[in-house]
Amino acid sequence: MSSGTPQGVVSQCGIGIDIGGTGTKGGIVDLATGQLVGERFRIPTRHVGIVFPAIIKNGVALSAANVDKSWINTNVDALMTETLGREVEALNDADGAGLAEAHYGAGKGKEGLVMVITLGTGIGSAMILNGQLVPNAELGHLEIDGFDAETKASAAAREREQLPWKKWAKKRLQRYFSHVEFLFSPSLFVIGGGVSKNSEKFLPYLELRTPVEIAALRNNAGIVGAALWAQQCRDAQAAKPVIDPVK
Ligand code: BGC
């Protein structure tokens, strides 16, 4: 908040990002005064990672459960690369969160199948087997009791139906997680998404064989995973052997 804002009144803020040829700058802007709030960041411009709530195969969005249907078949990598003038690599949002948790967070160093389930507008899922991401699991769309699971067990469903946390956990989450557990027998569940900051309101009610942890990176796992994914793609490109074209 700027010093000109009366105490107790939160003014409207926006996030500004300036992508340049050599550096990317950004910050939070108080839109009432045009002042930057807090620190400005600047990093050298390299690859940019983006996570997106859809199946992303070779950079192309192949579904659109909670975003406009016009995204289907859009090459997100190409569109963003052209728009930003930087190499952009896109990845499913839950896969990004999963990658981040497996590398830095609750799944770090864990053997076997780690399943990161994000509870937000939809239900996102990431499967990480011995540290390796198996992308695009889309387990939020399992059909359970005749319903697309995310329409009943997502955080948005709890809010929409104004369910108390306990009831949502004991009925909806319990049904969802026990079904996923039955199908995959993971070694660990990691719960992420916006609700991860309220874990004490639902975690005590879940009864599962599988250990459950809350995403260590909370709702930032997607951002961290996007940056990591961009770096992994850049490293993979650099490691590719240069093959002379057949004459
Ligand atoms: C989408 C997934 C996404 C999840 C969380 C689902 O509706 O199908 O691709 O990961 O929501 O955003």
Task: Give a brief description.
The chain has 247 residues and is α/β, with parallel strands linked by helices. Helix content is 28%, strand content 28%.
Coarse morphology:
globular
Q: Architecture of the largest domain in CATH?
A: 2-Layer Sandwich
Helix fraction by DSSP (H/I, runs of at least 4): 25-40%
Helix and strand composition category: alpha/beta
For the CA atoms, what is the radius of gyration?
20 Å
CATH topology term of the largest domain: Nucleotidyltransferase, domain 5
Ranges with pLDDT <50 over ≥5 residues?
A: 1-5
Biggest β-sheet: strands ordered side by side in the sheet: 10-9-8-13-14
Return the string of H and E elements: EEEEEEHEHEEEEEHHHEEH
Q: In the CATH hierarchy, what is the superfamily of the largest domain?
A: ATPase, nucleotide binding domain
The major pleated sheet works out as: 5 strands, mixed
Annotation keywords:
247 residues, three-stranded antiparallel beta sheet, Nucleotidyltransferase, domain 5, five-stranded mixed beta sheet, 2 domains, 6 helices, 14 strands, alpha/beta, binds beta-D-glucopyranose, 28% helix
What does this structure look like?
The chain is globular. The protein folds into two domains: 13-93, Nucleotidyltransferase, domain 5 (2-Layer Sandwich), CATH 3.30.420.40; 94-220, ATPase, nucleotide binding domain (Nucleotidyltransferase, domain 5, 2-Layer Sandwich), CATH 3.30.420. The protein starts with 12 loop residues before the first strand and ends in an 8-residue tail after the last helix. It contains six helices and 14 strands. Helix 2 (93-104) crosses helix 6 (221-239). The protein is 28% helix and 28% strand. The protein has 247 residues and is an alpha/beta fold. The strands form five sheets. Strands 10-9-8-13-14 form a five-stranded mixed sheet, with helices on one face. Strands 1-2-3 form a three-stranded antiparallel sheet, with no helix packed on it. The chain has helices at 76-84, 93-104, 150-153, 155-160, 165-184, 221-239, and strands at 13-19, 23-30, 35-44, 48-52, 56-57, 60-61, 88-92, 113-119, 123-129, 132-134, 143-144, 147-148, 188-192, 212-214. Mean pLDDT is 90; it is low at 1-5. The structure holds beta-D-glucopyranose (BGC). Residues 53-55, 63, 65-66, 92-94, 118, 120, 122, 124, 138, 140, 150 line the site of beta-D-glucopyranose (BGC).
